[in-house]
């Protein structure tokens, strides 16, 4: 009632023929058109967002390019050219110089091998993630598998945990001193099983670990299509006497192709940009090579970053191509509720479930137990308590040491519980994650809103792509870009730089979630409010935001949870003790593996608690939001 | 050519009976509609015949072949039943063009060469008039065009039996009318047996050679459309078929010679004369015997192994008596007395005339040009009538009316079943 009353004077004014308040009253037609355009808040907002995002996304990219031709004093380009400043093409010519056999070797080592390795690793990760995750999705959605609910929750654990978790676990499980030197893993130490080197280092474990990590992702995407797909489509083919394999290859597979494509794109670019996994598993990829080369071949390392960016852009183009086209895959749900589940057989449904229960145990609970155990071992790989030492061979010193004088094995560090470096790093990570999430969530939601409001405009499309680009950019490449950008701005090693980098990298999470749900929201909902002359901010706060609550929350939550366990993106942007994930390297370098384990454990527990709390409070969850198309 | 037989087909999910002990015969070349409110089991029945759903028990034959028999353990998969199925949402494959969609089923048949496939696709495309769209993808077609493609795809392999699950419900009103007559034409042209699910009684009435009316998983009536209309077996059937809906009038009375003397509209006494000689008392005796028989059969079923108590029990249909001021009418309970009746009057039997026996006030009047639907208020009760021709009434006008014709129905208020049809005149 009250709204009616406040509206009355304006209505009356309009009826009297008074010129409407606003923009269209004067000026030449062009100006008027511009004014009309901006009278819609979403248009102005879109323009601002477009400019800001273009600069913040493109400027770092351009700065890497420039960096590759800039002279870096103290590095090889300055040394060889004799220049102390200015520009040179030395880095490009030198990296690709294959004139002598030494140069050829360097080329292989610095460019060709890492490139080939990276592509192989990314491809295998994709294949693994899609087969493992897709098969699991099929089992859960289409068969009468046992323990579906439990399995479906536990299956996405690897995605919630930091990427390197499984890499570290793999190492600790399979490492073999007899084969590769160093300390023994659990299997070698306790059972005397020595796995070959290819099994615990290099391409194979890297691909499997990344594949496992992202299989959760493919499970969620493919599973969503299986769930929403109209079973009538398959039934229609069955009625026409189509063989089973043909139904699968001609109908089911094409239907899940979009999900497979988006999984491929994401897994490929994420695997490529992953540093910790190949780092722990000692595999030479573009990321690890970049870090090694950046010490004295900074400019050439930049070329590797450029290469990763190029891959990212190829992925973006590929993603554009796959989503356009004449075939529309909108899944109209029919009476699919009546689909019959595939019967796995009385034994099959238990057996397959049991296999998955065991497999997922190794990717969920076991890592936590293993990390916890590591923090009580007197030395890394010292499993003497199992082989005869008894409980007495375990120690609590890594947790409880409260002074740094008597214990010589801890390099002057206090135990985890008393260690301010760790707690400060933890707080730092939290702060960065929270701020980046706040910024990314807000910007992403607005992008989603503005783009949804201007569906057919090219500019909106462009802004959407700009916001989406970092999604497919390998993390390390984005990190490099912001490292160069931040250094030139004088904000290296500040929380501000970390937050900016995090914001840009995570906007896509929010903009995707929000765009997808905004597109479902019919324009009329807002138009009915416009008709009643309700101001824009009020429409947003009272109508749009409440309706889109859950997608907006996941727009904030996904960046938060991801930033909380982000290492690759941040590791070049600050000193190692600034945030907790980079402290992992710090302690690893000191040989304090128990500390790393403790940190990993803390991270996992924190993420699980956050996810559970948010899930309880809002119903949103990490597994429901990712990708989300 | 196939005749479809269902005997004692039951489908239940735990204690919920989707279809309960359904037996029926669908004649060759028939056009049978499965009609009923949503959730009554009609789609489940159709899917069971097609093989997309497995019955819990019972036996289904198509032609000479037993396609399902729970006792014998026979369950022929849907692809071996040689039937066509038209889905409500068309289920066109979005990744294939119209041509590919139609050709897909033919390509599975080794008897078809590539050339024959092309010829056949063109043929069916002509029948449903989608020739120009063969190269398009389904997403590029309108709803009506998609519907035609779906029909073409179903017709292409020349199925002898064609199942349709609410095929017209996603179309707009005008298109629906057009497609309705198309389907009728297709039925004649193809000579196939059509089984058609709908919740739209108009569609069922106009298309079917026989209507199978279901409610709560139980077959209510299986008759030709006009029989269902004129001789509905119970209050539910009478109410579900016919638009505007039938008028139900509560009545009390007793046998009076060859007729039944009834009090309706509170105090008006009328005499109901059955078209065929019968007495209410005899009818109740026959009913009791029939009920006994059904109960015994149920006992046998209950004694059988694996019987599960039915959770969704049949409850008496709560018929509604239209009253002024209450939308949709007032729901009525059944009574225990054999002197309580319900009189069913189709709107076309209400006749407004000067000499009418009852006096009423015009409550609403809706002329369409061809006829006028009037609601008459008599006391607090409303009676709906359809007056043919361009009659105009003003709201509030006082008129007199009669209940004419020999199609008046007398139902028992004790069990809701039809006792007899006949004529009504004031006594």
Which structural class matches the secondary elements of chain A? Answer: mainly alpha
Cα shape of chain A: globular
CATH architecture of the largest domain in chain B: 3-Layer(aba) Sandwich
Estimate what percentage of residues of chain A fall within beta strands. Answer: under 5%
- Describe the main β-sheet of chain B briefly: 6 strands, mixed
Nearest-angstrom radius of gyration of chain A? 27 Å
What would you call the quaternary organization? heterodimer
Uncertain stretches of chain A: 1-24, 331-338, 625-629
Can you count the beta strands of chain A? 0
The first-to-last residue Cα distance of chain A is 40 Å
Largest sheet of chain A: none
Helix percent of chain A reads over 70%
The proportion of residues forming helix of chain B, as a percent range, comes to: 25-40%
Q: Please report the two chains with the greatest interface, counting residues with C-beta closer than 8 angstroms to the partner's C-beta.
A: A-B, 28 and 34 residues
Query: The CATH topology of the largest domain in chain B is what?
Result: Rossmann fold
Mean pLDDT of chain A: 82
Structural shape of chain B = globular
Radius of gyration of chain B: 25 Å
Low-pLDDT ranges of chain B: none
CATH class call of the largest domain in chain B: Alpha Beta
Task: Characterize the structure shown.
The complex is a heterodimer of chains A (629) and B (427). Chain A has 629 residues and is an all-alpha fold. Chain A is 72% helix and 0% strand. Chain A has helices spanning 2-16, 29-39, 41-68, 76-81, 90-95, 101-142, 148-155, 157-160, 164-174, 177-180, 186-191, 197-200, 203-228, 231-239, 244-273, 276-280, 286-293, 298-323, 346-363, 365-374, 384-389, 397-400, 420-453, 458-472, 475-489, 495-520, 523-531, 536-547, 549-564, 580-590, 593-618, 622-625. In chain A, helix 23 (420-453) packs antiparallel against helix 24 and helix 23 packs parallel to helix 26. The model of chain A is unreliable at 1-24, 331-338 and 625-629 (pLDDT under 50). With 427 residues, chain B is an alpha+beta fold. Chain B is built from 9 helices and 24 strands. Chain B has a 6-stranded mixed beta sheet, sandwiched between helices. Chain B has a 6-stranded antiparallel barrel with strand order 12-13-14-24-23-17. A 5-stranded antiparallel beta sheet of chain B has the order 2-1-4-5-6, with helices on one face. The longest helix of chain B is centred in the C-terminal third of the chain and has 24 residues, at 280-303. Chain B is globular, with a radius of gyration of 25 Å. The model of chain B has no long low-confidence stretch (mean pLDDT 87). Chain A binds chain B through residues 230, 232-233, 235-243, 246, 250-251, 254-255, 257, 326-330, 332, 334-335, 338, 340, and chain B through 43-44, 47, 50, 52-54, 77-80, 82-85, 87-89, 91, 93-96, 104-105, 108-109, 137-140, 153, 157, 165.
């Amino acid at each position: 009632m009250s709204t009616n009353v406040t509206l009355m004077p304006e209505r009356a004014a309009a009826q009297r023929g008074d010129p409407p308040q606003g923009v269209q009253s004067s000026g030449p037609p062009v100006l008027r058109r511009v004014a009309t355009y901006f009278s819609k808040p979403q248009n102005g907002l879109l323009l601002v967002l477009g400019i800001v995002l273009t600069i913040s996304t493109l400027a770092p990219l351009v700065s890497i390019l420039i960096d590759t031709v800039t002279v870096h004093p103290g590095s090889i380009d300055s040394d060889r050219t004799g220049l102390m400043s200015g520009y040179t093409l030395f880095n490009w010519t030198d990296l690709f110089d294959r004139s002598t056999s030494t140069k050829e070797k360097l080329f292989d080592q610095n460019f060709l091998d890492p490139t080939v390795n990276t592509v192989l690793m990314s491809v295998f990760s994709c294949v693994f993630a899609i087969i493992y995750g897709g098969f699991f999705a099929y089992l859960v959605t289409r068969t009468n598998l046992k323990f579906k609910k439990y399995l479906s929750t536990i299956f996405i654990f690897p995605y919630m945990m930091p990427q390197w978790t499984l890499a570290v676990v793999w190492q600790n499980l399979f490492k073999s001193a007899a084969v590769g030197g160093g300390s023994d893993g659990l299997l070698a130490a306790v059972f005397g099983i020595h796995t070959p080197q290819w099994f615990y280092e290099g391409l194979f474990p890297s691909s499997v670990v990344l594949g496992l990590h992202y299989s959760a992702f493919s499970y969620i995407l493919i599973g969503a299509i299986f769930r929403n797909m109209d079973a009538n489509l398959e039934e229609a083919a069955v009625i026409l006497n189509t063989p089973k394999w043909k139904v699968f290859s001609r109908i089911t597979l094409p239907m899940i192709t979009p999900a497979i494509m988006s999984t491929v794109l994401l897994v490929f670019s994420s695997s490529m940009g992953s540093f910790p996994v190949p780092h722990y598993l000692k595999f030479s990829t573009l990321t690890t090579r970049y870090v090694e080369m950046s010490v004295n071949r900074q400019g050439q390392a930049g070329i590797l970053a450029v290469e990763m960016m190029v891959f990212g852009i190829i992925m973006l183009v590929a993603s554009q191509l796959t989503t356009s086209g004449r075939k529309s895959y909108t899944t109209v749900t029919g009476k699919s509720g009546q689909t019959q589940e595939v019967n796995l057989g009385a034994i099959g449904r238990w057996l397959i479930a049991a296999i998955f229960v065991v497999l997922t145990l190794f990717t969920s609970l076991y890592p936590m137990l293993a990390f916890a155990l590591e923090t009580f071992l007197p030395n890394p790989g010292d499993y003497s308590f199992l082989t005869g030492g008894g409980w007495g061979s375990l120690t609590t010193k890594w947790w409880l040491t409260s002074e740094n004088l008597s214990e010589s094995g801890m390099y002057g560090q206090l135990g985890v519980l008393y260690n301010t470096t760790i707690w400060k790093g933890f707080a730092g990570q939290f702060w960065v994650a929270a701020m980046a999430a706040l910024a990314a969530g807000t910007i992403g939601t607005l992008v989603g809103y503005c783009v949804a409001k201007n569906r057919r405009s090219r500019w909106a499309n462009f802004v959407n792509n700009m916001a989406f680009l970092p999604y497919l950019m390998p993390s390390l490449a984005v990190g490099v870009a912001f490292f160069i950008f931040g250094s030139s701005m004088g904000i290296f090693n500040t929380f501000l730089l970390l937050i900016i980098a995090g914001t840009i990298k995570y906007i896509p999470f929010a903009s995707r979630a929000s765009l997808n749900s905004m597109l479902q929201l019919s324009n009329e909902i807002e138009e009915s409010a416009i008709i009643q002359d309700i101001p824009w901010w009020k429409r947003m706060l009272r109508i749009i935001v409440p309706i889109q609550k859950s997608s907006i929350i996941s727009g904030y939550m996904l960046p938060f949870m991801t930033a909380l366990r982000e290492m690759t993106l941040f590791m070049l942007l600050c000193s190692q003790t600034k945030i907790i994930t980079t402290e992992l390297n710090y302690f690893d370098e000191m040989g304090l593996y128990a500390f790393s384990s403790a940190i990993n454990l803390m991270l996992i527990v924190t993420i699980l608690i956050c996810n559970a709390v948010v899930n309880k409070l809002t119903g949103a969850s990490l597994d429901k939001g990712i990708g989300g198309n | 050519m196939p005749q479809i037989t269902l005997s004692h087909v039951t489908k239940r999910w735990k204690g919920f009976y989707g279809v309960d002990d359904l037996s029926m015969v669908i004649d060759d070349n028939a056009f049978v509609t499965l009609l009923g409110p949503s959730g009554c089991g009609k789609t489940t029945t159709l899917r069971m015949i097609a093989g997309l759903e497995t019955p819990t028990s019972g036996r289904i034959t198509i032609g000479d072949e037993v396609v399902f028999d729970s006792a014998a353990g026979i369950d022929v998969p849907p692809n071996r039943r040689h039937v066509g199925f038209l889905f409500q949402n068309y289920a066109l494959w979005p990744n294939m063009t119209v041509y590919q969609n139609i050709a897909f089923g033919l390509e599975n048949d080794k008897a078809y060469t590539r050339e024959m496939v092309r010829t056949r696709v063109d043929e069916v495309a002509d029948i449903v008039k989608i020739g120009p769209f063969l190269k398009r993808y389904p997403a590029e077609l309108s709803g009506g065009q998609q519907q035609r493609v779906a029909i073409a795809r179903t017709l292409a392999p020349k199925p002898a039996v064609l199942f349709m699950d609410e095929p017209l419900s996603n179309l707009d009103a005008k298109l629906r009318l057009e497609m309705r007559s198309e389907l009728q034409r297709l039925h004649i042209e193809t000579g196939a047996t059509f089984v058609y699910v709908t919740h739209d009684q108009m569609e069922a009435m106009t298309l079917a050679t026989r209507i199978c009316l279901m409610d709560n998983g139980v077959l209510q009536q299986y008759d030709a459309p006009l029989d269902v209309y004129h001789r509905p077996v119970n209050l539910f059937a009478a109410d579900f078929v016919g638009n505007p809906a039938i008028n139900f009038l509560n009545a009390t009375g007793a046998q009076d010679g060859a007729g039944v003397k009834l009090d309706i509209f509170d105090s008006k006494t009328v005499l109901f004369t059955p078209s065929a000689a019968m007495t209410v008392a005899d009818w109740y005796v026959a009913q009791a015997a029939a009920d006994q028989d059904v109960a015994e059969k149920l006992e046998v079923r209950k004694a059988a192994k694996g019987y599960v108590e039915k959770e969704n029990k049949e409850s008496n249909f709560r018929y509604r008596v239209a009253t002024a001021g209450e939308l949709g009418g007032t729901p009525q309970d059944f009574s225990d007395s054999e002197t309580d009746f319900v009189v069913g009057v189709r709107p076309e039997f209400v006749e407004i005339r000067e000499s009418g026996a009852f006096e009423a006030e015009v409550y609403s009047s809706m002329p369409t040009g061809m006829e006028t639907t009037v609601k008459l208020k008599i006391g607090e009760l409303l009676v709906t009538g359809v007056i043919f021709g361009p009659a105009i009434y003003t709201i509030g006008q006082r008129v007199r009316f009669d209940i004419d014709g020999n199609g008046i129905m007398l139902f028992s208020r004790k069990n809701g079943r039809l006792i007899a049809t006949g004529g009504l005149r004031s006594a």
